[in-house]
Amino acid sequence: MDCTGEKEAEANAPSVVDRYYTRWYRADMKGKPCEDHCILQHSNRICVVTLAHTHPILQDGRTIKSINYQISNGCSRLKNKVSGKSKRGGQFLTDYAPLCRITCTDETEYTIYSCIRGRLLEVNESILETPSLLLEKPSTEGYIAVILPKFEESKSITENLLSRDQFDSLVSKRTLPQTQPS
User: Key word Nucleus present in the record (predicted)?
Assistant: First the structure.
């Protein structure tokens, strides 16, 4: 294979995310239009919570002012500590547990939720120092958190989520112009 063939093959190769993770989506989180979350599920059960490409934070050239993992006076996701092979000590999250709040420079605030039940393994502290990672690389370095579902629930956690095809279909219906009945 010559050099151009190798470069072409590299350009067409699936990304690490596409190769090793299944994308699941939660659309219109808590009834808020377009506040879509993406969950990347690895074959080892680990799930990475990210923003879906349709989330308002990633639209209209927004800029992030702050990211806050302090959920309430007594609850900070930054104080999450896990230990050992079984990841003991991690905060247990329900589907609608808030992970963080993101404020944009236009003062709009968005709460990012876990979308799945499980133990919080880590939050991405890198986005606190470099919020632009969330905008530039939302599926990789700009992830929000990593969650480990209970083993016995790992097959059923996706029941309330949309597959990539279902989500794409929903998004395409959003962008279709609404025709008025005559």
Answer: yes
